[in-house]
Amino acid sequence: MLFLLTGLMLPAITAGGAGLRVAVISDLNGAYGSTEYAAAVDRAVGRIVTLKPDLVISTGDMVAGQRRPHLSRTEVEGMWQAFHAHVTAPLAAAGIPLAVTPGNHDGSGYHGFELERGIFAEQWQPRRPALPFLDAGDYPFNYAFAAGEVLFVAVDATRVGHLSSPQMAWIEATLDRHGPRYRWRVVFSHLPVWPFAQGREREVIGDPALQELLRRAGVALYLSGHHHAFYPGVKDGITHLSQSCLGAGPRRLLGDHRQSPRSFTLLEFTDGTPSITAFAAPDFTTAIDWAGLPPRIHSSIADLVRADLVRSPSLGLAAGTIP
Q1: Helix 73-83 and helix 114-124, axial crossing angle in degrees, nearest 10
Q2: Which residues span the domain enclosing 122?
Q3: What pLDDT is stored for residue 274 in this prediction?
Q4: Which H or E element spans position 118?
Q5: CA-to-CA distance for 76 and 92, rounded, in angstroms?
Q6: Please, which residues have CB within 8 angstroms of residue 248's CB and are 6 or more apart in sequence?
């Protein structure tokens, strides 16, 4: 399969059309305990609504928990009320489903944050999107659904390090069972498999066995958050797509001196070549130019090559127009 790269766009795809349009948002939270959201969040959501995607995916950190001393139930629920007002409600009013995965600040799996993780489930179980679910037994943590010709697999990854054996077995079984029926396979979680950003080199899953599992299953895209920097990096034919933040704390990519702009990502799966575009703040109408990104992300555990520089049977370069 090919991907349209370099931040250029294909013509608009409307819901129910010949393709699938997916917006990806991540790391929208502000300071610990805050119920305030940056103006960039509202502008991004407004821009997403005008683009009319078929689906929005959040790769975590929607509210600002994981603080010691621990926040109370009232404080955590207050943060979620604010998030829903700024994000969930406008998307719902536009008829756009929202699929989520927990982040360390809104659904941490670490000991001591059981209350916040429980509230995460309480908030999202009654807001399960109207999508064709293939496995919703552990929603909103680990689950799978289909949209058009794409299989989406959500993975609960809020703790640094390898996933558990049962979780790995579930991912493998889900991809093996459902993957062959779909043209594209997309996996998403909060923590990335490999490092992208300075200061977060160790805050990854970092498991070669997971990478091999994804490769065998023919996964095209792995979406992640947490590193607060946009980068489309390829390893073993899989595009690992790191999202920038919309909230606090934009970061610098490894090997780069510039701070990644706040942005959201737009994916378009068409009858031809899917595309990847990141729209940058402040107005979210300008696409990030991939030529300005490092050609390679190097860390002690992995090398990722910028996707437009890869020549392989599964990835390539095409062009399009901004709608």
Answers
A1: 40
A2: 20-265+281-309
A3: 84
A4: helix 114-124
A5: 22
A6: 29, 30, 31, 38
pLDDT at 18: 55
Q: How many Cα atoms within 13 Å fall on the side-chain side of residue 109?
A: 17
pLDDT at 314: 42
- Secondary element (H or E) of residue 56: strand 55-58
Q: pLDDT for 78-135, tens place per residue?
A: 999 999 999 999 999 999 999 999 999 999 999 999 999 999 999 999 999 999 999 9
Rounded Cα–Cα distance for residues 74 and 58 (Å): 23
Q: Give pTM, 2 decimals.
A: 0.91
**Rounded distance, CA 63 to CA 60, Å?**
9
What are the φ and ψ backbone dihedral angles of 293, each rounded to 5 degrees?
A: -90, 155
Is the pLDDT at 17 greater than 60, yes or no? no
Contact predicate 79/104, CB 8 Å: no
CATH of the domain at 85: 3.60.21.10
Q: Helices 208-216 and 165-178, interaxial angle, to 10°?
A: 10
When divided into structural domains, the chain yields a total of 1
In a domain, 271, yes or no: no
